[in-house]
Amino acid sequence: MTAPALRFLEIRGLRLAVWEWPGEGPPLLFAHATGFHARCWDQIIRALPGHRAIALDFRGHGRSDKPAPPYHWRDFGVDLASAAEALGLRGALGIGHSMGGHSIVLAAALRPDAFRSLLLIDPTIFAPEYYDRPQRHDPSFILKRRNVWKSWEEMYDRFRSRPPFAQWDAAVLRDYCEFGVLPEGPDGACVLACPPQVEAAIYAASNAPEADLYSEIPGVAQPVTVLRGGRPWSLETFDLTASPTWPGLAARFPRARDVLLEGRNHYIPMESPDLVAREIAALF
Hints:
Layout: E1 5-11, E2 14-21, E3 24-31, H1 42-46, E4 51-56, H2 73-86, E5 92-97, H3 99-110, E6 115-121, E7 148-149, H4 152-159, H5 170-178, E8 181-182, E9 190-192, H6 196-204, E10 224-229, H7 249-252, E11 256-261, H8 268-271, H9 273-283
Parallel strand pairs: 3-4, 3-5, 5-6, 6-10, 10-11
Antiparallel strand pairs: 1-2, 2-4, 7-9, 8-9
């Protein structure tokens, strides 16, 4: 597979990294989850040769700028819509996982001509009644994530036998580690490309009133596929492997189908990249 080109866009006062693979036909626009980065999509893009593919590092992630918290969920969708406009995208297939699914929906509402269809992979779009309610779980443990590593290889060796990473496709885990650190630590060490304080701030704002998309969703006229993991989200615990997607979400779109993946958890693209690639191919 041809290596992607890295470019930077000036979006809303920030420098955002965009990775692009050359190809033909309708472009594929990928949006990653909280704490992840654009290169987590490599293995899925590899399974779709010949297609132009574009993946953005959201603000606070990857090679993009990292402003200090707070982080508001709508900013990610507005950034994505602005990037689609800057890239001149029209008729793209929008693919988003978790927070990226949330962002793809808002971007499609803001820039409808940029998208022809959407694939939402376990998007972080809660039940309507959950927004603007006190969170019963505490995401502050994210702040305790190990931030400094000797190398990405050390990170990979540490993670590959530990849950949830042990269930991931090995190549996806390698991509996650290789591009998930930056050589900006002390004495030549690496640090996480999404700092723990950024990731924790994003989770803390996940059900803020401004994250509620239910006023925009009826206006998203493109065909939508919602892939849901089979382990339901609980308001009582903070389980990153559970599905945060409201089971009634697909019914709120004008043209959507709901696909429940029994036995799957939230990390569908990491564990089953071939399954996701097949779903994308079906959109053509």
